[in-house]
TrEMBL record:
It is found in: Mitochondrion outer membrane. It comes from Kwoniella heveanensis BCC8398. Its cofactor is FAD. Its EC number is 1.6.2.2. Belongs to the flavoprotein pyridine nucleotide cytochrome reductase family. FAD binds at R166, P167, Y168, K185, K191, T234. The keyword Transmembrane helix applies. This is NADH-cytochrome b5 reductase.
Amino acid sequence: MASRIFSAARSVRPTLSANVARQSRGYASAAPGGGPNYGLIFSVAGVTGLGAYAYLQYDPAAKAEITAKAYALESKAEAKIQGLKAEKDASNEGVGVISALIKDSWVPFTLNKVEPYNHNTQIYHFNFGEDGNDKISGGEVASALLVRSPTGEGEVKDDKGKPVIRPYTPISAPDQKGGLELMIKEYKDGKLTPYIASMKPGDQLLFKGPIQKYKYNANTFDRGLCIAGGSGITPMYQLISHSLTLPEDKTKWTLVFSNVTEKDILLRKEWDELAKKNPERLQVKYVLDQGPWGWKGETGFVTAPMISKLFPRSAESQSNEKVMAFVCGPPPQVKSLAGPKDGPRQGELQGALKELGYTESEVFKF
């Protein structure tokens, strides 16, 4: 029997070598069809693999026994290859820098630290794992990522039994290595934020992305107006802080940030520092529903007259300068300022900005 096996192995070696080379090339770009790739699988095993491959031709029963295992091994190898390909596709423009996020797959990140910010908001520090110290979150400004709870027991689902998925904008830079930070406000009646607020260091969340929201290029407009409400401040922080780091960028910014009370103002220290360091390029205007005694900022809802006061545009400037307005906040606020979004689409421009003469090409709703 042994001599017959090795004789068969010698007879199939040239053909098998050719098949392995051909199958390996095809496997790198597409999943093979017509059954498991025995040639590819056994090519890793050397001479023993050749003997086994030949023996299977004489024993159909043995071949049937390992078919399921062969399929499983091939599927695992394909998943690994596709994962590496996705990492490469999601890599940063920098040579050799790989994104920890994968656009089409959920990736678990581990919570390192929870940093309380105010009465209902915390900063969550996540790491990319033991092999992720040199990886980045990736993505171009401005982009967000998707978050959900891990599958299995304790998974957060909606009323229809589907997993609850939410988009968040990191407050950390896209090129920060090793991890990312999310600033998340807890809503007691929310689906996902109470779960996140209960997390402890060592727990995991699933992430996917990044999702491009608005592609920012330096000097594409002269002045930018950002109107944010509550936790809608995070994409504005990503956008403006990025712009201010670009030495060639001359764009000037005005941030109008509305909140219920003074203690609700998120990233206030960071905004004040940015404005102090960049007085020629950034003005920050805080708006409260009802300001406390001695409050020097604006009060009330953000309306067309208030926007005109904080971000004036003369008839001459409207024709001679390029402006861009960004809006992010609770849906009622977005609706009153620029009209509701149409799902993932921008929707028709309405509200205060249309009243002030802004066009659809001059307004972006996050």
